[in-house]
């Protein structure tokens, strides 16, 4: 009788644990990290927010997410050439700066290897993105801005550690974000980023 009671208790505990591991299907995650463009633009803080849905496909391992993120890398320098002066006048201040603000909307399919590394869940994904850019140049005291928008691609990989009703995670991205402006030329201002955050499962 005692053995039967113990078996029933263990079965109930295992079922409860499985339900807790399953968690909710809706995902919500704030992110913060560092972005480094493949161009000469400096690294910059990266802020993002993700919402997603863990589909019933592939044994609840396939998620669809939508992320919005923001960063504004820049480059500064100085131009020096005696010809900038003329007629004996001192050359003007040649300091310049160029900042490229990006707001991106990313749609991703993400495959999760649930607890594939002990308690850790590795995941990989990718998809298209809508990238909105605004470049602001300041040279010789004159400020000019121009905007552009277009589609690009992105890939991601991460590790998630269960914590409370969700999980803490580390994530890395690569973005291909082409832009064609007067101040930048035709170039990919995307690049690499690393971020940390907490993904809540509702």
Write the layout of secondary structure elements.
Layout lengths: L1 H21 L3 E12 L6 E11 L2 H4 L1 E10 L2 E5 L16 E18 L8 E19 L2 E22 L2 E11 L1 E4 L3 E4 L2 E11 L1
Antiparallel strand pairs: 1-2, 1-11, 2-3, 3-5, 4-5, 5-6, 6-7, 7-8, 8-11, 9-10
3D architecture notes:
InterPro entries: OMP/PagP_B-barrel (IPR011250). This protein has a single domain, classed as Porin (Beta Barrel). 12% of the residues lie in helices and 63% in strands. It contains two helices and eleven strands, in the order αββαβββββββββ. The strands form two sheets. The chain has an eight-stranded antiparallel beta barrel with strand order 1-2-3-5-6-7-8-11. Strands 9-10 form a two-stranded antiparallel sheet. A hairpin with an 8-residue loop joins β5 and β6. The radius of gyration is 24 Å and the shape is elongated.
Compact summary:
This is Outer membrane beta-barrel protein. The protein has 202 residues and is mostly beta strands.
Alpha carbon gap, first and last residue: 40 Å
- N-to-C series of helices and strands: HEEHEEEEEEEEE
Level-1 CATH class name: Mainly Beta
Strand ordering within the main sheet: 1-2-3-5-6-7-8-11
Q: Which stretches are low in confidence, meaning pLDDT under 50 for 5 or more residues running?
A: 3-21
Q: Tell me the Rg in angstroms.
A: 24 Å
Specify the overall morphology.
Answer: elongated
Looking at CATH, which topology would you report?
A: Porin
Structural class: mainly beta
What is the total tally of β strands?
Answer: 11
What is the count of helical runs?
2
């Amino acid at each position: 009788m005692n053995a039967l009671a113990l078996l029933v208790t263990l079965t109930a505990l295992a079922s409860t644990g499985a339900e807790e591991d399953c968690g909710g299907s809706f995902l919500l995650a704030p992110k913060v990290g560092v972005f480094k463009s493949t161009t000469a633009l400096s690294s910059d803080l990266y802020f993002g927010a993700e919402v997603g849905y863990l589909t019933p496909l592939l044994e609840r391992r396939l998620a669809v997410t939508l992320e919005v993120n923001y960063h504004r890398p820049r480059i500064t320098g100085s131009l020096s050439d005696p010809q900038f002066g003329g007629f004996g006048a001192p050359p003007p201040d040649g300091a310049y700066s160029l900042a490229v603000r990006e707001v991106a909307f990313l749609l991703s399919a993400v495959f999760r290897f649930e607890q594939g590394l002990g308690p850790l869940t590795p995941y990989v994904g990718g998809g298209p993105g809508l990238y909105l850019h605004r470049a602001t140049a300041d040279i010789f005291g004159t400020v000019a801005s121009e905007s552009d928008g277009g589609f690009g691609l992105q890939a991601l990989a991460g590790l998630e550690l269960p914590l409370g009703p969700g999980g803490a995670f580390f994530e890395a991205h690569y973005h291909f974000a082409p832009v064609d402006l007067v101040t930048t030329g035709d170039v990919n201002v995307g690049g690499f980023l690393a971020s940390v955050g907490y993904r809540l499962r509702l």
